[in-house]
Design brief:
Elements lengths: L6 H6 L4 H12 L1 H7 L1 H18 L4 E4 L14 E5 L5 E7 L3 E6 L4 E6 L5 E6 L3 E6 L5 E5 L4 E5 L5 E5 L1 E2 L2 E2 L6 E3 L5 E5 L16 E5 L5 E5 L5 E6 L5 E6 L4 E7 L5 E9 L12 E3 L5 E5 L2 E5 L5 E6 L4 E7 L5 E6 L2 E6 L14
Antiparallel strand pairs: 1-24, 2-27, 3-4, 4-5, 5-6, 7-8, 8-9, 9-10, 11-12, 13-14, 14-15, 15-16, 17-18, 18-19, 19-20, 21-22, 22-23, 23-24, 25-26, 26-27
Helix pairs in contact: 3-4
């Protein structure tokens, strides 16, 4: 299994700081333990409890604008769909009543049934990441260890769709969506570059994979491109940068070209608070981006409407339920469900625009 203590894990999982703090604390109070016996143990327990309380996180909807409540009920409930995973990513809702999701720690792709939390293993695959359906209902995955974009069948067998740009291996494809032109779009940072393997492409790019198999570089402006999404009208292309902690937007043309790239929003935070990662859009054009503490919600003009605060740091999200009005959220060891008052924009359900 790959070493997960890399840039992305360090930034996303605030729990990673706990072992280091605990060891430091024990060293600092060792003299108290020796001198004070039971009193020292009581002090240490208090310090640990204080640390736990300071890091406690809970579900809460925090509005930055009254418009936030057009999207959520004030008393909206977060439900747990499944838990006990290693590191969840890449949710995709299926009308049969399950989610596909990746577990990057156990190196597997699962079906998670939303009615009872039952899970079935689809495939054992080195460090699977973002997923999507294409318009033919094929499951498409970013396979980091394979350094490829792959297609999986219902039995878990895969076919490599693309693994190189101009003869050089991709870095570690991270997230993937279907575009308004039926092509596949994906990000290729170095966040999950397999240990011991060399980076062959000297930048971190965003690409278009056409129906004919041609790979086109769209931009290499981002330091560590991660999540990506299109606006409902297909005219804007959003992508976030986990290293720069911002979201960028480009004007998108029918031939797959990008222009007028600019910063759409910033999501600042501490080292272990979480970074911009997965992105989804609703049919009104609002943008939902995982970030420090939870999911940041933005309107189409780049105004921060509010935040969905979560007890576990989220990495990605998907629209689901029969009306596509529920957000399914992959957050570290668990998957959560949150009903909304809006309806999600799901690119693979719509035809070319």
């Amino acid at each position: 299994m790959m070493n997960k203590m890399r840039i992305r894990r360090d930034a996303v999982d605030y729990h990673a700081a706990w072992p280091e703090w605990r060891a430091t604390t024990i060293v600092k109070v060792s003299n108290i333990l020796i001198a004070g016996g039971a009193i020292g143990l009581t002090i240490l327990a208090g310090l640990i409890n204080l640390r736990a309380q300071s890091k406690a996180r809970a579900f809460e909807l925090t509005a930055a604008s009254p418009k936030f409540w057009n999207l959520f009920e004030h008393d909206a409930k977060l439900t747990t769909v499944g838990t006990g995973f290693g590191f969840t990513e890449g949710p995709v809702w299926d009308p049969a009543g399950f989610l596909y999701l990746s577990d990057e720690e156990t190196n597997k792709i699962f079906r998670l049934y939303t009615a009872d939390g039952r899970k079935e293993e689809l495939a054992s695959l080195g460090d699977p990441d973002g997923n999507t359906y294409d318009r033919k209902h094929h499951l498409i995955d970013c396979a980091s260890v394979l350094r490829a974009i792959i297609q999986l069948d219902d039995a878990g067998h895969y076919t490599v769709l693309a693994d190189r740009y101009e003869g050089k291996k991709f870095n570690s494809p991270n997230d993937v969506i279907v575009g308004p032109d039926d092509a596949i779009y994906f990000t290729d940072p170095t966040l999950d570059l397999p240990k011991g393997e060399k980076q062959e492409i000297p930048f971190q790019g965003v690409y278009r994979l056409g129906p004919d198999g041609h790979v086109q570089l769209l931009t290499k402006e981002l330091s560590q491109p991660n999540g990506l999404a299109f606006s409902p009208d297909g005219k804007k292309f959003y992508m976030d940068d986990s290293e720069q902690r911002n979201i960028r937007v480009y004007d998108f043309s029918a031939d797959g070209g990008l222009k007028n790239g600019r910063v759409f929003g910033e999501e600042p935070g501490g080292k272990r608070d979480g970074v911009p990662d997965g992105i989804k859009v609703d049919q009104q054009g609002n943008v939902y981006v995982t970030g420090p503490g939870g999911i940041w919600v933005w309107d189409s003009e780049g105004h921060h409407l509010g935040t969905i605060n979560l007890s576990e740091q989220p990495a990605n999200l998907a629209w689901g339920d029969a009306d596509y009005s529920a957000l399914y959220i992959t957050a570290t060891t668990s998957v959560y469900r949150l009903r909304t008052k809006t309806r999600g924009y799901v690119p693979y359900l719509t035809g070319p625009q």
